[in-house]
Amino acid sequence: MSKQKPIHIISFLLLFVFAILPLILGFGFALAYSFGLIGGLNQGFTLDNWSALFENNDVVISFLYSGWLAIASLTLSVVISMAIAIFFHKKFSKGIYSYLVYMPLAFPSIVAAFFFAQFLGNSGILSRICYQLGIIDNIQSFPNLVNDQYSFGIIVAQFFLSLPFFTLLYTGLYQTERIDDYTQLANSLGAKNRQSIFRISIPILLKKSFPNIVMYFIFKIGAYEVPLLLGRSTPETVSVLAVRKLQKFNLYDIPQGYAVAVIYTIIILSLLMLVLKTNKNEYDI
Known about the structure:
Blueprint: H1 4-34, H2 48-53, H3 58-93, H4 97-100, H5 109-120, H6 125-132, H7 152-176, H8 179-188, H9 193-221, H10 225-230, H11 238-247, H12 254-284
Helix pairs in contact: 1-12, 3-7, 3-9, 5-7, 7-9, 8-9, 9-12, 11-12
């Protein structure tokens, strides 16, 4: 115990210096800048930057829009990957499918965004395929699925990036949690396949993957490359809005950008606390 104690202290110090301290300093800097305590135009403590930020509904719409995109792509990923794990888990445990599922994970976000911009645009690959098959009269008549009002391109790209992760997660959980044994036991006691899926398989997978879903939601709500390349100029996601304000030549917009970062950090920390509390309650049980 005496030998392990210095190791624990050193590990905590390294974690604090290289992980926790930069976050605290960054958050403090953004908070001070948003209140006018530092910066090129600082004149002391003021709430003008925050009031200017909320003069219109852009920041509220931005957060709601980012949350909606994250929820939409995550819902598709979770539902489809869970169905794959329940019905095709044996195919993904070995063979070619177990290797192919890793391929989308090798695509950086910006590469996936460029790919779907070329694939889904009204003059892209999909429109040309439809034209060659005679589905549309000309390439220009193909609906633009990029920079569209429904954010179809963003949702598809984020779905493409998150589907393999949840497929691997749920196929692994299906085996480690021995769901097959539970479903067979339920079927032997008279339960139908549908009852076994909705009352055993899905609840277990959702409960075990809830922290991962929340963590991936945090990652998706702060995505930058995909919404920047595939989204419209309005509404903007949180990250695009913050970067735009921070990089504008108007110095009065910079404190507002830091204010957006502060709000985002508070929301993320709240979600992280939710995940930690959920895990703690699970272990306590």
